[in-house]
Amino acid sequence: MPRPPKPYFRKQTRSWYCSISGRQVSLGKDREVAFEKFHELMTDKAQVRGDLSTLYELSQVYLDWCEANRKRNTYTHHRYYLKLFIDHVGKRLRPSQLRVHHVTQWHEGLDVGTTTQNDAVSIVQRMLNWSVEQEYLPRNPIQGMKKPKRKRRDVFYTPQQWAKIREHAREPFTNFLDFLFLTGCRPLEARSIEARHLHDDLVIFPADESKGELEPRVIYLIPDALAILKELVKKHPEGALFRNSQGRPWTKDAVKCRLTRISEKVGFRVIAYGARHSWATQALTEGGVDPISVAHLMGHRDPTMVSRVYSHLSKNPRFLRQQARNAVRRPEAS
Question: Is the pLDDT score of 11 beyond 90?
Answer without folding.
Answer: no
